[in-house]
Amino acid sequence: TRHKLRDKQDQLKARIESTNREGDAKIKSLQQQLTTAHEERKQRLEKRLAEVRADYRERSDKLHQAWELTKSAIR
Fold first, then answer.
1. Considering the entire predicted model, what is its pTM?
2. Could you give the 3-state DSSP secondary structure of residue 11?
């Protein structure tokens, strides 16, 4: 059982890192697009940027909760 939990914990760690990289890349891309966009497009990009940040934060929080649960289960 502990071995399965450790495997799950390793999977979660990889997923957290992947989510962080993906979120950072999306945010960076949108920020770069904002620097050259015209006013109307800027408004849409700013809205999308806020949505991406909120989604990223929510996914990250859920993965960290799962990480903490597996950590406490191993103890």
1. 0.74
2. helix
